[in-house]
């Protein structure tokens, strides 16, 4: 950043600061005036969030007892709520929330797949489109993005997040919030906190975690989401260090509000206050209400406890009126800051029409998402892209199952709109003059009952007539998402049998994996010619995937999480702490397994392009730096292949000697670069020295002077490095710790020339 630019942006920030302070003061005055008119029931209504139900009491919207609603996703449904609201005395706008996880009418590839694009602008655009498609029917709030980091893909909700890395997850958290807000939704950072670290990958399970780790690894994506304007935070279902997050004052007050300076509202998760009885907190709903509300939860999602028990809690002095006023103020501030008054009307016919037609922009983004998220994992003989094929066999029911293309969160998308892999490949093949035989084989082939040997043998025989076989296997939509933890990430026995039977034909076999997490490929990898992950392709993602298969575009996706060889390796991430006995093939007494390699199948950041790109050893624009400096890590990237490619240059840093044990490497920046065939380009990735620190026990954040090893390359195993000497350190309180990737537009722009 040049000094001139710093001065300009500082001036702009000051003006914006004054403007936003004046705006905030005006909102506070409005809140004061409104609160003077509110009864106790009105106030408790504001901290209540009621969900659509078969029998929904619309009169409670009119009386103000329900001050917020959720899941009235279609215009006719929300119109009924509005009709009731129009009769209310104070006409305080309602927050109307729903889960918009990866699209609404148009479905994109789910968030974990989107993360594989490493493309912030594309993620921002998809979130904005999802929001635009939702506001038409009156939704003004969403429970997204999920910013939970995860190192154990046994957890089904890994599909909703950004993977395992703090830097990438923080970049994406910010980009997604910006997109949702630009499209008109209040965004929620969820789930606070550490929900992705449940024991054994089981959903809702307890988490034990040290606070330095929490602050280094788990909080930064929340901080990035809040910095980008997430006005709400959802507390998580899990217990954290022995106290359920929903009733955890230390998390919500000390960490979220004091240290992270969060000013918005905290909502509970679905029914979580009621479920505290199962945590053993108390059998008494009154106690649970008091514990949660006093811990800092401002809004009760779907337990209806605040509405029922806060009056008694206040009458008995267990909850103060001041605490109620504080929560109400937070809710009202979110509503006024988001201008929700202007959104409390709906033209059901117009909204219905908007939802009925698919939007062209959504289609373009979804296809581009398909291109940018198709992750080529294995292609040793360059069998992809498909060339000179006259007859193609597409095998496996997952290739032609619209519902499975939609993944676990279909929102308002419609099955009839889904372009399946079968359809997209058939259409693209036709352009290449190739015909396609589709063979359902054993359907999704997930369950042993589907192992009909004869069906598999018939499919293999028919597929053997083709020049190339594309087989689609992986997860069904029900095997991914919430409450879909898996104890074994292996492909199912019928799927493996199918792939083996196809491989036995001697014809080239390309495996497309669908699903929301890594799956084990050990049993098939040496038998097939190529493997690519296509996630859940959504409405149009298959079109982009088909373009990649036929070489219209080179694959550019990179893994946002480590891909294991075996479920027993989990949890697994590239940025683990070192041990005193690093794994060594020559020494038994080291950090490894005796029955499987210690390395993952594919490392974080990995993904193949068509052709070969090379990244040179890194050099620095300066070899020594101070805590407040930014250094540029410069590499040359060469495309020696015959196709245009997009490479993602990744920079990892290791603090060699420190007062705490430090990960052997951490991603600190990356840049995407488009290269024509034969082209070489120099790429500079800026790294802030302030981002190289860590948190200590008292919560403060330190950067220690000394040597930092800077690696650059194409994935987390990059070997080339150079050393950087940091000559001065710093120590700051938790709120002053740098948020990764706030300068995200400067980083990672595809094709940006340095
Ligand atoms: C999930 C949340 C979601 C909520 C509302 C819960 O079960 O944990 O992520 O936002 O339901 O649908």
Associated small molecules = beta-D-glucopyranose
Number of strands: 28
Q: Span between N and C termini?
A: 13 Å
Strand content: 15-25%
Radius of gyration: 26 Å
- Individual helix count: 19
Low-confidence stretches: 1-17
Spatial sequence of strands, sheet with the most strands: 11-16-15-14-12-13
Helix content: 25-40%
What does the average pLDDT come to? 94
Which descriptor suits the 3D outline? Answer: globular
Structural class label? alpha/beta
User: The biggest beta sheet, please?
Assistant: 6 strands, mixed
What is the element layout, followed by pairings?
Elements: H1 3-37, H2 40-46, E1 48-51, H3 59-63, E2 68-70, H4 75-86, E3 95-98, H5 111-116, H6 120-135, E4 141-142, H7 166-182, E5 188-192, H8 211-227, E6 232-235, E7 239-240, E8 243-244, H9 249-259, E9 265-267, H10 285-295, E10 300-301, H11 305-315, H12 321-337, H13 348-356, H14 360-373, E11 375-378, E12 391-395, H15 402-406, H16 421-431, E13 435-439, H17 453-463, E14 468-474, H18 493-503, E15 509-514, E16 530-533, H19 541-549, E17 613-615, E18 619-620, E19 624-625, E20 630-639, E21 645-655, E22 666-675, E23 680-688, E24 694-695, E25 701-703, E26 706-713, E27 721-726, E28 730-732
Parallel strand pairs: 1-2, 1-10, 2-3, 3-4, 5-6, 6-9, 12-13, 12-14, 14-15, 15-16, 19-27
Antiparallel strand pairs: 7-8, 11-16, 17-20, 18-20, 20-23, 21-22, 21-26, 24-25, 25-28, 26-27
């Amino acid at each position: 950043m040049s000094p001139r630019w710093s001065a300009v942006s500082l001036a702009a920030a000051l003006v914006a600061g004054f403007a936003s302070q004046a705006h905030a003061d005006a909102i506070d005055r409005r809140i004061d005036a409104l609160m003077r008119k509110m009864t106790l029931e009105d106030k408790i209504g504001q901290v209540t969030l009621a969900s659509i139900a078969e029998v929904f009491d619309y009169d409670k919207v009119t009386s103000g007892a329900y001050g917020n609603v959720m899941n009235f996703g279609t215009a006719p449904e929300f119109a009924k709520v509005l009709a009731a609201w129009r009769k209310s005395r104070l006409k305080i706008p309602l927050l109307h929330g729903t889960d918009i996880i990866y699209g609404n009418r148009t479905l994109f590839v789910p968030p974990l797949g989107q993360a594989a694009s490493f493309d912030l602008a594309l993620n921002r655009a998809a979130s904005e489109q999802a929001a635009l498609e939702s506001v038409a029917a009156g939704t003004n709030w969403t429970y997204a993005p999920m910013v939970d980091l995860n190192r154990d893909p046994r957890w089904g909700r890994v599909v909703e997040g950004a993977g395992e890395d703090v830097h990438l997850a923080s970049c994406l958290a910010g980009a997604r919030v910006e997109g949702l807000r630009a499209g008109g939704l209040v965004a929620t950072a969820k789930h606070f906190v550490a929900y992705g670290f449940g024991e054994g990958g089981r959903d809702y399970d307890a988490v034990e975690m040290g606070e330095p780790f929490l602050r280094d690894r788990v909080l930064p994506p929340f901080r990035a989401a809040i910095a980008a304007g997430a006005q709400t935070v959802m507390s998580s279902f899990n217990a954290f260090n022995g106290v359920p997050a929903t009733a955890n004052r230390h998390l919500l007050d000390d960490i979220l509000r004091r240290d992270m300076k969060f000013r918005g509202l905290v909502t509970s998760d679905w029914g979580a206050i009621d479920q505290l009885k199962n945590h053993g907190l108390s059998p008494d709903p009154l106690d649970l209400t008091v514990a949660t509300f006093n811990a800092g939860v401002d809004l009760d999602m779907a337990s209806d406890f605040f509405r029922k028990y806060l009056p008694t809690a206040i009458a008995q002095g267990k909850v103060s009126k001041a605490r109620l006023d504080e929560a109400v103020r937070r809710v009202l501030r979110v509503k006024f800051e988001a201008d929700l008054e202007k959104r409390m009307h709906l033209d059901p016919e117009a909204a219905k029409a908007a939802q009925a037609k698919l939007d062209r922009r959504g289609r373009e983004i979804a296809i581009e998402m398909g291109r940018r998220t198709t992750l080529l994992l294995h292609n040793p003989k360059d069998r992809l892209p498909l060339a000179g094929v006259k007859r193609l066999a597409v095998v496996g029911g997952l290739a032609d199952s619209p519902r499975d293309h939609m993944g676990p969160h279909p929102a308002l998308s419609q099955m009839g709109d889904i372009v399946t892999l079968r359809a997209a490949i058939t259409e693209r093949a036709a352009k290449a003059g190739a015909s396609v035989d589709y063979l359902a084989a054993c359907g999704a082939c997930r369950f042993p009952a589907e192992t009909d040997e004869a069906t598999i043998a018939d499919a293999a025989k028919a597929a053997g007539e083709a020049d190339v076989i594309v087989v689609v296997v992986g997860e069904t939509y029900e095997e991914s998402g919430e409450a879909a933890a898996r104890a074994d990430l292996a492909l199912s026995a019928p799927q493996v049998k199918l792939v083996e039977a196809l491989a036995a034909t001697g014809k080239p076999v390309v495996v497309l994996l669908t699903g929301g997490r890594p799956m084990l490929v050990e049993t098939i990898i040496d038998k097939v010619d190529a493997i690519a992950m296509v996630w859940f392709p959504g409405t149009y993602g298959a079109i982009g995937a088909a373009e990649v298969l036929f070489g219209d575009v080179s694959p550019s996706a990179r893994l946002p999480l480590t891909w294991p060889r075996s479920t027993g390796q989990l949890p697994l991430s590239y940025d683990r702490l070192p041990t005193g006995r690093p794994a060594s093939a020559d020494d038994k007494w080291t950090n490894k397994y005796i029955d499987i390699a210690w390395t993952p199948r594919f490392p974080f950041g990995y993904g193949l392009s068509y052709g070969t790109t090379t990244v040179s050893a890194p050099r620095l624009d300066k070899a020594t730096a101070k805590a407040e400096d930014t250094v540029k890590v410069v590499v040359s990237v060469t495309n020696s292949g015959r196709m245009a490619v997009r490479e993602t240059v990744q920079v990892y840093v290791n603090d060699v000697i420190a007062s705490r044990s430090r990960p052997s490497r951490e991603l600190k920046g990356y840049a995407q670069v488009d290269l024509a065939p034969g082209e070489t380009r120099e790429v500079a990735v800026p790294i802030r020295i302030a981002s190289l620190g860590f948190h200590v026990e008292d919560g403060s954040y330190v950067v220690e002077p000394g040597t930092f090893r800077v690696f650059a390359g194409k994935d987390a195993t990059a070997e080339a490095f150079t050393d950087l000497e940091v000559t001065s350190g710093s120590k700051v309180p938790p709120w002053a710790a740098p948020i990764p990737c706030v300068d995200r537009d400067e980083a990672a722009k595809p094709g940006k020339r340095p």
